[in-house]
Design goal:
The structure is a homodimer. By secondary structure, the first copy, chain A, is mostly helical. The first copy, chain A, contains five helices and no strands. In chain A, helix 1 crosses helix 5 and helix 2 packs across helix 4. The termini of chain A are close together. At the A-B interface, helix 1, helix 4 and helix 5 of A face helix 1, helix 4 and helix 5 of B.
């Protein structure tokens, strides 16, 4: 499922930056618990919030999505 | 805004296919009025629903997002 793989990739990119979930939440102006939920793929993220996270991580959103589509199981 | 450009690109791709909103809704298993709302950029679309639309249009989601990020105003 795309949400699950997207969450894994967000977590991996966050870890690569050496950031806590709290730090990513601050940088992307989202709530810390929301970031946790997204990383676990538990909630359907909106494209706009996903863009905020990608921006905070210094990636274009399409790149984050591509990683997730290519590494994940297709739906 | 990304949602607006994404909606424009979805509409453009749908038109390229010669599809009505109704047809795109059927193909992507979403409600017809929801497709209209998304094309006008009025509602924040989830990544999962956007994936359904991209699949129906025969595009990888990252490609649809890339078009929208590169043609749109950055947020």
């Amino acid at each position: 499922m795309l949400a699950l793989q997207l969450g894994r990739n967000i977590r991996a990119e966050r870890s690569r930056n050496g950031w806590s979930q709290e730090r990513l939440a601050e940088e992307s102006r989202l709530h810390r618990t929301y970031v946790g939920v997204i990383e676990r793929g538990e909630k359907r993220i909106t494209v706009c919030n996903c863009k905020k996270i990608a921006c905070a991580l210094g990636l274009p959103l399409w790149e984050l999505i591509r990683m997730s589509e290519e590494n994940g199981l297709s739906e």
